[in-house]
Structures are given as structure tokens and as C-alpha cells.
Design brief:
The chain has 444 residues and is an alpha/beta fold. The chain is 49% helix and 15% strand. It binds NADPH dihydro-nicotinamide-adenine-dinucleotide phosphate (NDP) and (2Z)-2-iminopentanedioic acid. (2Z)-2-iminopentanedioic acid binds next to strand 3, helix 5 and helix 15.
């Protein structure tokens, strides 16, 4: 049944390999649910849940510093609003296509449902490459993007946030333009600076949440992060705070990467080295190779990080499909027993299969990295209340939400006869709430 449906989905969505990959993974888990609950067939939930409610594509023209006209393509995929206003990040990267954003928006639907907060799923962005652009050019681009996007979003309609290539600076430029256009100060974006409506802990939340999720999985067998050697990929927002939380919990982070290569610091990345790296990446916008020069450690070009040594825990925090079947086999052969995904769909289907078969603690992105969007949900709540919670209060809530997500996924996996399989658990727990809400709201 799922096989036939996937054939139709592929025919309907040619040249969208990431979307098909994400859908296949979710649907494989749902076979178990459909057998138990035929109502989802009757209500054509598969057909409806794989079709975005709305796709917006638009031209983004702007003037670069030389006065030349540049043209990019902007997108917003409003995938599902059954349980709340659309919610999801904006990605700025040259690899952005419609299919890429459809995969991310689709994942977001289930992830947001898992958080227990009232948020639908969406994603957007552009093929604009922020690398090598001046602040002025980034501002011009963000303003142009928002001069179209503003009419499709709103605090109760669709609330974008950051993702690859979108951090505090970009959110600031977009928020300024939105406010000017609508003449309203509202919580239309999350990841804002705390001076103008942002939540404390939102920058930290995805990375912190990923490590909390890993710790929750380990705790089911009485283990902790203490003393574990941890491989982390990426060096952006998620990787930075995954590194910090690993240190807080007594682990030893030893790797980081960017799109050029990776470093291995056998002595361990300390708080001081991390602070230097964050300045390198967030302020000076340099390359990770400079870390190796500064701290005299190994640097390798390319993507060999997962095969580069013996790691107890792996936290992929860079991008989709960055860890393949061979990487997974090598990690397992070298004794890795815990993988928590800070990035969205970083493991290829073959890698996922290896991890699940080996029965290690494997936390898929839609569960393990949900702390970011969950804290965005907390930012929305604070904006609605017109007050701000303390760091401690937000962190405590984040802790509670990550435990809730873990337990939901853990229980659903058990209930459907695949104990310890967080892939099935997360997909099923995320799906049921959205699907039942869709049925209750009629054929719309
Ligand atoms: P950033 O832009 O801050 O950092 C991205 C990092 O990944 C950089 O080190 C970047 O290297 C590397 N990277 C990006 N694309 C590629 C690529 N194609 N190949 C190799 N390396 C790459 O993004 P985030 O840290 O915010 O996002 C990282 C991942 O986490 C993404 O999958 C994102 O969807 C996911 N995520 C983010 C959340 C958030 O709140 N920000 C929430 C949940 C998930 P370089 O600088 O060289 O490009
Ligand atoms: O993939 C993700 O969950 C994000 N990029 C964060 C989305 C959000 O709305 O905070």
C-alpha cells in the first residue's frame, strides 16, 4: 500500500529527491499505524498530508554594492496548519530549491507536533548565498525578500525563524522591514534579539536540545554524557551550542566542520576555544581551518569527519545527507553508541538503517533538534503575553519539552512493537495528532 502510494508521489513530484526521501522515511514508519487504524485510509490522510496547503514562489531583486541588479528566487511552503499557525525557518543557501524546502517543511509538520505546542509546519528561504556578501548586501536582500513575504505571514498566520544562513543579523533586517510595511510591532518572526521581543535561550535552544535529547536516550540505560568523546559536525548555530552543552554535561567535543573541511582537536574543544571559534564564525565569518592554525590541531579537507577516529557519540549538526552508509558502518565499527541529529535529515536512508539495525541510541532530527522550534514556540507565547521569561525559566521549559518529546517517541515505538526505535516513535507520535486534527476539521 505504501509502496504504491510512494510511486504516485514520485511521479507527482519529479526532481524533488529530498522531499521523496523524507516522505519515504515517515511513511515506512506509518505502515504500522495504518494497519491498526484504517480510518486514516478512509480520510485520505496520506494524500492530504503530503500535499502542501500552499506554496509561494517569488522574485527577489536587489542591488549589490557595485550597483548591479541581482535576482534570486524566494519561497515559502505552508505545509500544514491543522494544529496551529504555520511555523518554520528560512534557509539562505545556493542549494535551496522547491524540493529541498518541501522536505524541510514536511519534516517540520511532525517535529512541531511532537513538541506538544500548537504550531503547524512551514519552511522558506532563497537560493541567495550570504557567503562573501557585505552587511549592506545582506540587508538589501533581506528587505527585498520581506517586501513580498510580508503579505503571506503574520503572528497568527505563519511565523518564520532562522535556519542555515539565517541568524540574528538576518532576522533583524527582516523584522525591521516587516514592521515598516505593516506598521505593527508583532511577533511575526522568532529568533529576535531579546531587546526587541526575542526569547532568551532561543539561540542556544537547538544545540542544547539535541544534547538534552542524547542525554535522555542514554538515561534509559543508566548512561550519561560524562567522559564521552563526542564528534560534532558543522560550526554554525546548532554545532556551537551542541558543543557548549556537551561541555556542560562533562563530555569531550573533539571535532567541528564547515563546507570546506573539518578539524580534530584531540586535546578537546574547551569553553575558551569555543568562544574563539564563535567569534571566528559569527563575527569575522572565517573558515574552520583557521581554528586548526590557531590551536595547532588536525585539519582535513572534505567530508571524511565520521570516518576520522573513534567517537562514543556523534552529533551531526551541519546539513542533510552529510552522513552516509559507509560513515555509519565506520562509526559503529569504532564503537559509537549514540547519534543525535542536530541537523535536519543528516543521515542517508542507508545510514539510518545501519543505526536502527545496530540498536544504538539513535535520535532522528525531527525529535532531537526540535528544541529550536519549541523555544520559538515559547518566544511566541512570551510575545502574546507581552512579557519575557528569565534564562532559567526558558531553559527549564526546554528541558521539560525535550524530555516530553523523548518519552512520546519512546512510548510510541513500544506501543507499535518496535521498542527503542526512535525513528518509528517520532514519526508515529508526530503524525497521529496532526492526522486526527485534520479529520476533526473536515475536508479542507
Ligand atoms: P548555520 O548556517 O548557522 O550553520 C551551518 C553549518 O553547516 C556551517 O558550518 C556550514 O558550513 C555547514 N553547512 C551548511 N551547508 C552545508 C553543506 N551543504 N555542506 C557542508 N557543510 C554545510 O545553520 P544552523 O546551524 O542553524 O543549521 C544547521 C542544521 O541544523 C541544518 O540542517 C538546519 O536545518 C538544522 N536546524 C537548525 C535549527 C535552528 O534553530 N537554527 C533548528 C533545527 C534544525 P559553511 O559555513 O561552510 O557553509
Ligand atoms: O528546522 C527547524 O526546526 C528550524 N530551523 C527552526 C524553526 C523555528 O521556527 O524555530
Amino acid at each position: 500500500m505504501i509502496k504504491e502510494f510512494m510511486e504516485q508521489l514520485k511521479a507527482k513530484n519529479p526532481a524533488q529527491p529530498e522531499f521523496i526521501q523524507a516522505a519515504q522515511e515517515v511513511l515506512d514508519s506509518l505502515e504500522l499505524v495504518f494497519k491498526k487504524n484504517p480510518k486514516y485510509m478512509k480520510y485520505k490522510i496520506l494524500e492530504r498530508i503530503t500535499e502542501p496547503e500552499r506554496v509561494i514562489m517569488f522574485r527577489v531583486s536587489w542591488l549589490d554594492d557595485r550597483g548591479e541588479i541581482q535576482v534570486n528566487r524566494g519561497y515559502r511552503i505552508q505545509f500544514n496548519s491543522a494544529i496551529g499557525p504555520y511555523k518554520g525557518g528560512l534557509r539562505l543557501h545556493p542549494s535551496v530549491t522547491l524540493g529541498m524546502l518541501k522536505f524541510l517543511a514536511f519534516e517540520q509538520v511532525f517535529k512541531n507536533s511532537l513538541t506538544g505546542l500548537p504550531m503547524g509546519g512551514s519552511k522558506g528561504g532563497s537560493d541567495f548565498d550570504p557567503k562573501g556578501k557585505s552587511d549592506n548586501e545582506v540587508m538589501k536582500f533581506c528587505q527585498s525578500l520581506m517586501s513580498e513575504l510580508f503579505r503571506h505571514i503574520g503572528a497568527d498566520t505563519d511565523v518564520p525563524a532562522g535556519d542555515i544562513g539565517v541568524g540574528g543579523r538576518e532576522i533583524g533586517y527582516m523584522f525591521g522591514q516587516y514592521k515598516k510595511l505593516v506598521n505593527r510591532f508583532e511577533g511575526v518572526l522568532t529568533g529576535k534579539d531579546p531587546k526587541w521581543g526575542g526569547s532568551l535561550i532561543r539561540p542556544e535552544a537547538t544545540g542544547y536540545g539535541t544534547v538534552y535529547f542524547a542525554a535522555n536516550m542514554l538515561a534509559t540505560k543508566g548512561k550519561t554524557m560524562e567522559g564521552k568523546t563526542v564528534a560534532i559536525s558543522g560550526s554554525g548555530n546548532v554545532a556551537q551550542y551542541a558543543t557548549e552543552k556537551t561541555l556542560h554535561l562533562g563530555g569531550k567535543p573533539v571535532t567541528l566542520s564547515d563546507s570546506n573541511g573539518f578539524i580534530i582537536d584531540h586535546a578537546g574543544i574547551t569553553h575558551e576555544k569555543l568562544a574563539w571559534m564563535m567569534d571566528l564564525k559569527n563575527v569575522r565569518r572565517g573558515r574552520i581551518s583557521e581554528y586548526a592554525e590557531k590551536y595547532n590541531c588536525e585539519y582535513h579537507e572534505g567530508f571524511g569527519l565520521w570516518k576520522s577516529g573513534k567517537y562514543d557519540v556523534a552529533l551531526p549538526c551541519a546539513t542533510q545527507n552529510e552522513l552516509d552508509g559507509e560513515d555509519a558502518r565506520t562509526l559503529l565499527a569504532n564503537g559509537c553508541f549514540c547519534v543525535a541529529e542536530g541537523a535536519n535529515m543528516p543521515s542517508t536512508p542507508e545510514a539510518v538503517e545501519q543505526f536502527v539495525k545496530a540498536g544504538i541510541f539513535y535520535g532522528p532530527g525531527k525529535a532531537a533538534n526540535a528544541g529550536g522550534v519549541a523555544t520559538s514556540g515559547l518566544e511566541m507565547s512570551q510575545n502574546s503575553l507581552r512579557l519575557s521569561w528569565t534564562r532559567e525559566e526558558v531553559d527549564q521549559r526546554l528541558h521539560g519539552i525535550m524530555k516530553w518529546i523523548h518519552d512520546q517517541a519512546y512510548k510510541a515505538a513500544e506501543q507499535y512493537g518496535t521498542p527503542g526505535n526512535y525513528v518509528n516513535g517520532a514519526n508515529i507520535a508526530g503524525f497521529v495528532k496532526v492526522a486526527d486534527s485534520m479529520i476533526e476539521q473536515g475536508v479542507v
